[in-house]
Amino acid sequence: MRLALCSLLLVSPFAVSCAAAQTPITLAVDLTDAPRKILHAQETIPVRPGPMTLVYPKWIPGEHGPTGPIDNQAGFVISASNGSGNGQNIKWERDKVDMYAYHIVVPAGVTSLNLKMDFLATAAAQGFSAGASTSANLALLSWNSVVVYPEGAKASDVMVSPSMTTPGGWRFGTALEVDNVTHGPGCFARINDGQTFCSFKTVSLEQLVDSPVLAGRWFREIPLATDTTPKHYLDLAGDGPEDIALSDEHIAQFSKLIRETGALYKSRHYGSYHFLVTLSDQVSHFGLEHHQSSDDRVEHNTFTDDSAFIANGLLLPHEFTHSWNGKYRRPAGLATPNYQVPMEGDLLWVYEGLTEYLGDVLAARCGIWSAPIYTARLATVAAYLTDARPGRTWRDLQDTATEAQILYNVGGAYDNYRRGTDYYDEGELLWLEADLLIRSKTKGAKSLNDFAAAFEGLGGNTPPKVVTYKFEDIVAALNAVVPYDWTGFLRSRLDSNQLHAPEMPGLNTLSGYKLVYTDHPNFWSQLSEAQAGTIDTRYSLGLQIGPDGRVGDVIVGGLGDQAGFGPGMRVLAVNGRGYSWSLLRAAIKEAQGKGPAIEFIVENTGYYKVIRLDYHDGEKYPDFQRVDGTPARLDDILKPMTN
């Protein structure tokens, strides 16, 4: 196969040579300037003379779009490292269409290239930011940020020998294995400067990009579920020692998560697993899945503040579930041969939607969330998809997955009408309905647990690998659990343009609960309001107003929209008094029943007007209410599978 591959590649003037395919690339990354937001990398690539194209990773697995952070690449210099051109700088030229490609000509007699590259980890802490992140005392190294490779090569064929230098006193966690054989001790502190050097075992580029490193001064590694095999670790790095002071209770919950996934998926597809948790307010907050680890970036107090812990409770179960659903079982359109081939996201309602559902259920089963907290969150998700998402009337759920590479970057003003990455939350409702339907049809004998064990656990325990699937495979796997028109079930929900979420009639009928509105915020609504510093008036006034009175969003077709509100306007006064969220809440209560209409003074780009809302139904908050005399299937779903 290798010879056939080389013969094929040599047809292209810019293709990787056989020598490059056989000899590992070396990649050395220096994190000693990470506290100053800059990473240094040196790479050596075996080559042959002639035209060649190098590429910087563009389509990053798990990010579902062309998000490779090339805008933060700097200091990119190529030179010949041996032969007649030793030390000679080689001029590169960027492709005029593909900004991620560099064309070069390798001089005669040159067998390898030296490349130097810096990565500027300067992205703001707000929002999603791909690539490496750093603060004064920690760094998350995403290898795709600091590597190039020959165009056309398969990521699984390109071998890389990586190494890393960190500031003195820093420790690290990663799924990569330290190389204690090839170069002697794999990690050692250098006498002259106290910095730590570590070399790792040679891996494919695919495995390298899939294995980030979390390093820091304040670092703690905690073994989880030590009675299980393979080994699992919780690796924490914070801005201070107080950030990594995780309680025994939380450690027990994460250990329970390990056991619950074993019971659910009945398989492990990794040699060991590392949760890499960055606890810092100086980096962007999100999670990114990997096969044998996860990159989890959260607020500094996530493990020491109860509210913060609950707010982020879905993250680790979600990213851990991706090891099975997303990394091992992967939609065929997302299983590309390298990082330049565009991904097709049409099955993200499985990749992300099923993961959202199973991850949230696991959060309840392992005790991170109590059942009431899970139910409260489910109510908030169901409500906005049912009564505050008019974008459903033109963009169906399927399109949110198909256009994912663009929709990840939208939100804010008119988000309810634009409709973004709903394949997460509505995907969760879809899979919950499927679970309830299976339980109903089999009188509780089977459930989506059976689907998860068969589909995600296909082949039993395996090393890391990718097993692809298509829509038809999903239908076949569901039919193997219980025969039904699953194609019709799925397509009717994926392709629907009705105003309200099509999953809700099934959830209200089958779960033992129904979605209702009350005048008291549930736990999740209280938490959201506390974080935002305002009240949620989406289901009453059809508005989202910030603590400074700025209108963030207006529900299209809602009361505020009909009265003339628009995003970006600023509410200056409510009923003649300077705006505050407490006065707005009081005005809504005063108007309830036969009270006076609510009067707003609003500023819009320097112009002022009065808007009156003739609203009298009081505050409205979503909740799931138990329906007496019906099977409590939702309660059954949340029951742990292990003792």
Question: Could you characterize what this model shows?
Answer:
There is one protein chain. The chain is α+β, with helices and mostly antiparallel strands and 643 residues long. The chain is built from 21 helices and 31 strands.
* Mean pLDDT over the full residue set: 93
CATH architecture of the largest domain: Sandwich
Counted up, domains total 3
| Helix-residue proportion | 25-40%
Radius of gyration: 27 Å
Task: List low-pLDDT spans.
Answer: 1-21
How much of the sequence lies in strands comes to 15-25%
Highest CATH level, the class of the largest domain: Mainly Beta
**Biggest sheet features:** 8 strands, mixed
The CATH topology of the largest domain corresponds to Immunoglobulin-like
Helix/strand-derived category reads alpha+beta
Determine the N-to-C terminus distance.
49 Å
Tally of individual helices: 21
The coarse overall form would be globular
In short:
The chain is an alpha+beta fold and 643 residues long. Helices cover 28% and strands 25% of the residues. It folds into three domains: 2-246 and 270-321, Immunoglobulin-like, CATH 2.60.40; 339-512, Neutral Protease, domain 2 (Orthogonal Bundle), CATH 1.10.390; 532-621, Roll (Pdz3 Domain), CATH 2.30.42.10.
